[in-house]
């Protein structure tokens, strides 16, 4: 646990990090966007049991930042309930809508209809019952060695001035062992990532909801060919040693 005397230092650090979001917020002033979508993974960090309580400060400071003062419609979805292993993804979706946009609707996945977006709503903790999002973990048999981890997707559907689209936050599997990743190419982890991605895309194309254009962005955990990278690096090191022995520069 964090000692009480370090709480203020921790809060100050959170403030500094929040002010650095997205690309020093200068990007917002420079590009003057009217709609901002921010997708986060591993909400609460690696040690989420201890760190999840600090997420509220992060969200509050972000929403109150000067650069976002003209975004009067906000929707935040934070999957924070780590007590539910079968549902917990630690995904966080942030959406900021500029005051100049009036015709903004959000899809209700239960009612199968759009609802108006007004005001600022933050859905956090256990968000299983929130119907304006769709969230799922990948099937357990997809997980390497069938060990549960925080991998899945969180989708929202928007209608802005009559244009309908999905925004999907996805977190694919990482390489749990570099040694295992080196054994084959594509590695067993790459194959698992591909399987999970294809499963997700197939679901979106064949579920009960109307098909619409979508933007898929998050953490794909793509990797290079580990064995080839190490081989090239080793060959370069050998060549460097040989050149030095030969007195070459």
UniProtKB/TrEMBL annotation:
Its EC number is 3.1.3.56. GO terms for biological process: phosphatidylinositol dephosphorylation. Signal peptide: none annotated. GO terms for molecular function: inositol-polyphosphate 5-phosphatase activity. The keyword Hydrolase applies. The keyword Hydrolase applies. It comes from the Eukaryota. Residues 8-249 form the Inositol polyphosphate-related phosphatase domain. Keywords: Hydrolase. InterPro entries: Endo/exonu/phosph_ase_sf, INPP5A, IPPc. Belongs to the inositol 1,4,5-trisphosphate 5-phosphatase type I family. This is inositol-polyphosphate 5-phosphatase. The lineage of its organism: Eukaryota, Metazoa, Ecdysozoa, Arthropoda, Hexapoda.
């Amino acid at each position: 646990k964090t000692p009480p005397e370090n709480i203020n230092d921790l809060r100050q650090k959170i403030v500094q990090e929040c002010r650095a979001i997205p690309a020093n917020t200068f990007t917002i002033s420079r590009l003057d966007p009217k709609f901002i979508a921010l997708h986060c993974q591993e909400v609460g960090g690696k040690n989420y049991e201890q760190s999840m309580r600090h997420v509220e400060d992060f969200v509050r400071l972000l929403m109150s930042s000067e650069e976002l003062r003209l975004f009067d419609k906000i929707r935040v979805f934070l999957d924070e309930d780590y007590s539910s292993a079968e549902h917990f993804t630690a995904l966080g979706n942030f959406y900021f809508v500029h005051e100049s946009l009036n015709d903004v609707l959000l899809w209700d996945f239960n009612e199968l209809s759009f609802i108006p977006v007004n005001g600022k709503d933050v859905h956090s903790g256990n968000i299983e019952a929130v119907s304006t999002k769709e969230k799922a973990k990948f099937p357990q048999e997809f997980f390497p060695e069938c060990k549960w981890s925080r991998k899945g997707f969180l989708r929202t559907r928007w209608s802005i001035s009559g244009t309908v689209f999905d925004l999907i936050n996805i977190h694919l599997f990482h390489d749990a062992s570099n040694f295992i990743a080196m054994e084959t190419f594509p590695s067993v982890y790459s194959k698992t990532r591909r399987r999970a991605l294809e499963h997700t895309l197939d679901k979106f194309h064949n579920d009960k909801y109307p098909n619409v254009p979508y933007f898929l962005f998050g953490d794909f955990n793509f990797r290079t060919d580990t064995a080839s990278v190490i081989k090239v690096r080793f060959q370069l090191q050998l060549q460097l040693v040989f050149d030095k022995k030969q007195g070459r520069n």
